[in-house]
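Hi there,

I know you've been waiting on this one. I reran it after we fixed the sequence typo, so this is the corrected version. Both the input and the resulting structure follow.
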Amino acid sequence: MDTAIGGVVWYLFGYAFAYGDSHSNGDYPGNGFIGTHYFATSGLDSSASPYDFRHWIFQWAFAITSSTIVSGAMAERTRLRAYFLFCVALAVWIYPVPTHWIWSRDGWLSPYNPDGKFLYANGFLDFAGDSVVHMIGGISGFVGAWIVGPRLGRFDPELKGHFDPHNQSFMMLGTMILWFGWYGFNPGSTQALANGQGLVAARISINTTLAASCGTIAGLFCAQMFLKQWHLPTALNGTLAGLVAITGGCAVLQPWAACIAGLTAAFVYFGSSWLMVNKMKVDDPLEATNVHFFCGAWGLILVGLFADRDHIEKSYSLKAGSVVDYGLFMGGGGKQLAMQLLGIVVIGAWTAFFAGAFWFLMKKLKIIRISDAAEKDLLSHAVELERIQKGTRALRAVAVGEGTEVRTMAPKTFTGANREAGKETVVVIQDSDSGEDADERTAGKRTNSAKLTTVAAKAAGANVTYISDSSASSSKSSSDGARRRFTTEGRKESNRDMPATTTVIVKDDGSTSSDESSSSSSSSAAPKAKKPATKKSAKKSSSKKSSHSSKKSSSSASAKKPAAANQTKNIAHIPASSDADTTDDE
């Protein structure tokens, strides 16, 4: 919707306010503040216009990108109608006016203004949009997130962990798509391949690649140094931080400076994230503010520090030797840095004022935030899912520690039908050993079922039931043998070559599934923790179990009923062996 709304508004008003300058058509006087023509593309295709429809479509992509940043910063508690209205405000006013300042031929900050520039010759250098795209989007999202307030329970110590990123595969996919798309934004900002611009685009591509690569490495280093783990979300945001930081100076920095941009941007992102969460208590689910605003501003500062004189002349098609002010660390003095700081302050203040006024109005009209009931429902799903995940993680940790493998089957979706039936995650814990030697493994290599279930219950905040089918121990079926506990007790000649497995179902409510009901009628009581049996004791106890199986099954079924009645939410249990317990759809 932000793309669609932005497209219509950009067509009617946005493009005209951004690029309708005096140098486009001699019939219209221009000014340094705002454009005055090209409304609904009127006159854009005339011979007197230096622009055309190719320019329009490219700039539209920049405009709507700024609004998508806001959606991430205010996610999971903002009403769609408020966001839709903001897309209109951004495309018609907040974004076009600063764009006119720095990219039009009349803008008072623009390096493209041939009639003289404010303060000195170069103007405010932002080649691909660190200010008008990333800073405007990041600041708009920040003030919106601050005004709408944090998500329910976001800073509650008891709910810590419920708001962590939950699908890292999609995060990786999204980051790679963005990285690829950056090659359209940065090199594409040359808007030409002739007159040496093709070489400029090639250099921009190298700088973009290096900044993203260094940002990824630095982000992962930050995670290890401060979080004490290899944290993928931090590394991925480090990638985006590097990409944002190089955007403004992609054409004027040398490759080694692009590496510095990526490396430092990851620390800027990580530090600003810590500040917002721990000190400011501003809830930005996607950390869009940190990546786009803070790293965007940092990228503009880097231009003032490392801009190369020769690259400025070639990138902005200036006469050789005409540039006297460039990067401070490159010997060009401090004027370019001063101009960059001026642009950051002015554009930041403009955005904060108008975006803040808009979101404050939405709050006063009571249309900014979703209802309490809807938000509580979202939180309850997050809590339930986290408990399921805790249970499966605990089972996985114990299984791996015992030298076993774990296969996790996907949890059921949160649909109305499944809510009534009880959502569950099936975890198949498989013995890593198989064959004749498997019976001779030491006790330390076997998984104690009581330990498994106890740890799972504690982690999931639930009661745990272990169901053991006594008939399985006397069965010679390979499929049954493959599901037995990790003891030598049930290993038969017919299934020596098959790995033993234990299936665990972690459920998020107290409802009893049909598999549990059918198996409990013929199951034994939950076993107490005991030392794994040896091969000889297994053979000795086999005949005893066979003669008493029906009696034990009957008594355990009646003994289990009171326990089941007292089960709390999020039950984890190991079901009896049956073909329905382990399926092929992992």
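Quick highlight: The two ends are 35 Å apart (CA to CA).

Best,
R. S.
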